[in-house]
Design goal:
Blueprint: E1 8-13, H1 15-31, E2 37-42, H2 56-63, E3 66-67, H3 70-73, E4 79-84, E5 100-104, E6 112-113, H4 119-122, E7 127-134, E8 144-151, H5 158-182, E9 197-198, H6 216-225, E10 235-236, E11 239-247, E12 258-261, E13 265-269, E14 275-280
Parallel strand pairs: 1-2, 1-4, 2-3, 4-5, 6-9
Antiparallel strand pairs: 5-7, 7-8, 10-11, 11-14, 12-13, 13-14
Helix pairs in contact: 1-2, 1-5
């Protein structure tokens, strides 16, 4: 459905995807001479300086873009809002506009909620995705506008999956911004029979010790899933590790036996008679 160009475009969120989207939107509006004002709504913990995550508040200041709160824009009828790793649930019923979108880091309806870099690796997924969807009263339950699928190599870590989400999510934003500005695109309701959802209680990030009695595949999946240095690293006997790989051959040693050690890594016998090499952090 064709709609008027929004008078206000709000970019909410954090990190490289939000700062890139803000910059891109500013350039798009200017070069297309659109009658729209672009503003930023940073996450609540944004201090205005870059850490390992780029600061949307800092980017807004550098771009000359005003910072706003959700409450300040709820009554704007001609509003386009895009959430990109935003840390608050947007209460859509409080908004006069229905042009409220989110880019979620998963191939919805699978992996609603949090830990979307961890659970797909624990579950042995071969692909993940990013999804542009309308926001509704639920958490990541709105109708789907578009998706991009991302193949996963067997060796990728949660940190690397997060980077893939950032890259593909921004590509999805770039692709769809012109259409979001001029239309309310058709969308497909999520298939509830395929839906999965994870909350913060689904994983205890304080329990990252590797169980070497598991199979080699499960051991490596666990290590890759919890390898996100900015938050945590998995451990073997209390020592942090970054990666895991299976070594050809088998071992009759009891699971957990250290078979060979170097300054950089150690090979262990596993619960299915195979051998894994873990690399120390």
């Amino acid at each position: 459905m064709v709609v008027p160009v929004p008078s206000l475009i709000v970019i909410c969120g954090k990190g490289r995807i939000a700062t890139s989207a803000l910059s891109y939107t500013v350039h798009y509006v200017a070069t297309q001479s659109l009658p729209a004002r672009v503003v930023a709504c940073p996450n609540t913990d944004d201090k205005g300086y870059d850490t390992w995550q780029a600061s949307l508040l800092r980017a807004a200041a550098q771009l000359g873009v005003e910072r706003v709160s959700l409450q300040e824009v709820e009554t704007e009828r001609n509003l386009l809002l895009v959430s990109l790793e935003y840390d608050r649930i947007v209460r859509v019923t409080r908004f006069l506009s229905r042009r409220l979108y989110n880019i979620h880091f998963s191939a919805l309806p699978k992996y609603r909620g949090v830990f979307t870099s961890i659970w797909p690796l624990l579950n042995g997924e071969s692909h993940v995705g990013v999804t542009l969807h309308y926001m509704d009263e639920g958490v990541d339950t709105g109708a789907i506008v578009a998706q991009r699928m991302i193949p996963l190599a067997s060796y990728v870590t949660a940190r690397q999956v997060y980077d893939l989400y950032m890259d593909e999510g921004f590509a999805l934003f770039r692709e769809w911004l012109p259409r979001l500005v001029t239309t309310q695109p058709e969308a497909i309701a999520q298939d509830e029979t395929r839906a999965t959802s994870y909350n913060r209680a689904s994983i205890d990030l304080g329990k990252v010790e590797v169980d070497l009695s598991q199979t080699a595949d499960r051991i490596c999946a666990f290590i890759h899933a919890f390898s996100f240095p900015e938050y945590q690293l998995p451990t073997v006997r209390g020592r942090a590790i970054r990666s895991c790989v299976s070594i050809p051959g088998n071992s009759t040693a009891p699971p957990g036996t250290a078979l060979h050690e170097t300054a950089y890594s150690t090979s262990f016998a596993t619960g299915d008679g195979r051998i894994v090499e873990v690399t120390w952090a």
